Records
---
Amino acid sequence: MQKILVTGAAGFIGFHLAHALCSAGNQVLGIDNMNDYYDVNLKQARLSELKKHNSFEFQKLSLEDNDGMAAMFEAFKPDIVVNLAAQAGVRYSIDNPRSYVTSNLDGFINILEGCRHHSVKHLVFASSSSVYGANKKIPFSETDNVDHPVSLYAATKKSNELMAHAYADLYGIPCSGLRFFTVYGPWGRPDMAYFKFTKAILNGDPIEVFNHGDMKRDFTYIDDIVEGIERLISHLPQGDAGSAPYKIYNIGNNQPEQLLDMIGILEKALGKKAVTKMKPMQLGDVKETYADIDALQAAVGFKPSTSLKDGISHFVKWYQKYY
């Protein structure tokens, strides 16, 4: 049994991961600041599910709370840290830039300091496919240049990768960063397109389709994401001679889908046609995402396998039951 800290435990990925880790016999401390970026009731409902595990404990805590974070690390002494807490969302960062600096930069340094002072065996942290910006080369590879972010959110995620590398190099902390590609599924985030579309279609409201539908996304089902993280937790990055114990991985479906095809799958699952309102490209958005996952496969022998049709079907069943 390992002691694992999961930050952002009331969030979408954090909830699913904490559930899987508890089910596998680990002792999990989940922390979350329960902010109102989206429906807090959904976060509370996720926590209620997690609290059914005797091996799960929850603490309401913000990453940027210096004293609170130091005290939490001192009390829990985690073997493994999985940092999934962050201010999420590309569009929100245009209107609320300071919240990204506070959570994603000030907060992340507290994670790194906690790992440094408590001899954490492995830090696994969330990055994002957003770091690739408007890169033209497809599929996106971890070796691509990512120095041209098109949103502040992406810039903070790239900053996290650089900060983690510095700590891996200075203090020998094994660090693995995960660039997530459009994660979806039951208990998901209400600010994501598939979630908003579902609500609108059922209500008979029009859905806004950006770039007139000419977009592709590497939609990745939540169970595949969780399995990838679980495998990576026990796979420590090896520093070559003179290099830091640090590695970045794409974690995506390796199969981009047209946005309009996703809407069609959603319509079939809901048994109702969407009313579409075509719009131009949004500020900070990108036309296509596509993950090269060779590094992930080489490291842990894992490739996501859930089709978009099956994943959307699972989501719709959960949505109709929950709401």
Note: The mean pLDDT is 94.
---
Amino acid sequence: MKKIIVFGSTGSIGSSALDLARRHKDLFTVTGLQANSSKEELQALASEFNCPFTLTSQDGIEGMARLLDKANADIVVNGIAGAAGLLPSKLVVERGIDLALANKETVVMAWPLIKSLADKNGAKIIPVDSEHSAIFNLIHFCKKTNIEEIVITASGGPFRNYSREQLEKACLSDALKHPTWKMGKKITVDSASLANKGLEVIEARRLFDTNVKNISVVVHPESLIHSLVRTSDGILYAQISEPDMRHPIMGALCWPEYVQSGLEKFSLAGKSMSFFEPRRDDFPLLGLAEKAADKGGSYTIAFNAADEIAAHAFIDEKIKFLDIAKIVQATMEKDWSQEPRDFDDVFEADKNARAIAEAAL
């Protein structure tokens, strides 16, 4: 029986994790729940799972620390979106608790610091993003020394078939019509702009300690293959499943065992799959993220911060869709070569990048 804490318990990742706990009461017991602000929903979940410890974001980082100390969990699912999820990850690995990680900013903003803390305290970090979960498992099976390339799949988002002229006129309601996944507004906009795929390149480069030149992106609209690896003999190996985030969450919660999930099993019969090169000129955020990943320093922090400012400006209908990339590019033209020495440096770089992006608006 694994004791789990869910951060972001009312969001899409948290809800999926709790659905698995609901289905597998013989495997998991929920000892802690955190949510942004929905007190009523949080209390309903606490009652359902007989969970003794809960808190909202209003309780602050100190409240999270107390929750972790009291709830005595084996693993924490971090489904908090945005930079707000970074310090919770730090608190988890400082305590030597395993981390099922869905928060991109933990890796994009502060991976060297987080990884060092996890190693020091014996905490395992298991990725929950469908792409990185796939890569994590494929590397486990194929062994890292045999792998020469990581191939990340992208749905292409709602604008995959849009012409340049259509992109210039694209509005928020268009961007939110994701063809495969149901997600929050920010990540859906990032999917439309390929910023999300750029962030995943940064994550893969860091999580799996490889070079950007060894990572490629292919557009796969059906979202059935979640990523691939190419071994040194040239063969590609893929992880295939229905597009359901409960698969990678279950994998993270049960790692290193593979357990019957009770979820829909994938069948090849009647399926078709297609693959395309990403249109980099029309979706420049992918290339900007790759440059950030390659340069290191604080460039990945600047990319993430500027994209967050620009994407929310688009959501608030202050700018056009193609302006998102312009704001990120303007921000990244500054010097971000300094490597953060500690978490204060991380947040200082994040603050500075946000200020520059705001000015670019």
Note: The chain has a mean pLDDT of 94.
---
Amino acid sequence: MKKADYLSWDEYFMGIALLSAERSKDPNTQVGACIVSSDNRILSLGYNGMPIGCSDDVFPWEREGDSPYDMKYFYVCHAEFNAILNYNGSGLKGSKVYVTLFPCNECAKAIIQKGISEIIYMSDKYADTDSTRASKRMLEAAGVKLRLYEPANKEITLKI
């Protein structure tokens, strides 16, 4: 008899996105992304962090300050954007992305341009912001399917 309580594809890929988020050094918001082909093969992973060569010990992680220059928003690459940039294959058309936080408008542009057809997201905590509203407007216009991840309330403990 085979094991009955194995992970569904959604649980598996969102779990990988959650694990990827643990690589983020952002003290406030850790986000992970997992891009998957239409036949459920992992194509790329990403998490939010500083660009290569920009030390996360030097660049700011603050959310507030006297100037945007001194806050993280000008510098941090988002998880979805990193996952797209990390992909080395021939194309992402028809793929889907599992992401722990709904994509901003800038990430939505990249998702649309690369032909990703579905976004499965865990949280939409910034739903009322202009950035997220603009993101949804573009994604819906481009025909990208949006789906809130339905947690199965499973708990997995990893000892690493």
Note: The mean pLDDT is 96.
---
Amino acid sequence: MGIFDRFKSKPQQTQQDNIAENTEKNCIYAPIEGEIIPLAEIADGVFSEGILGNGCGIKPAEGKMYAPFDGEVIQVADTKHAIGLLGKDGIELLIHVGMDTVSMNGKGFSPLVKTGDKVKCGQLMMDFSISDIKDAGFVTTTAVVVTNSDNYEKIETEKLGQVQKLEKIIKVS
């Protein structure tokens, strides 16, 4: 065995290690670790009144956003603070990090995906800076909203309070 063979055989942790294997149909899994709050408690009327759709809010505990289901990236905001997804089950989802963060013009946001990318549940899609958001004077609460809510009879938040990434948080039927 040569010296480089030792490195080849060493198991390395990859992005794939975070991928969720067994996901339920029509379910949305936590894209961010933190505290789940009802949509009505988000401090922005566009979200709290359900104008963009039903869902929930998350007060992030860390600056990482993961794919909440298998699907396709249909939009990454020019200002990098939000990602739109289309799930393989037809769910259209907006994940909007922070409130009024559009005015940060991308500072503190590092999307790792682009429009058209296919994503797997659990795949890291964005790094963001909680401290940059707070330093800019904005709240970090992130909206997780089903933008095609009218296509469904029921959109239920399954869990409130502390959540780890990839815990089931919303069921759509």
Note: The helical segments are 3-9, 45-48, 130-135.
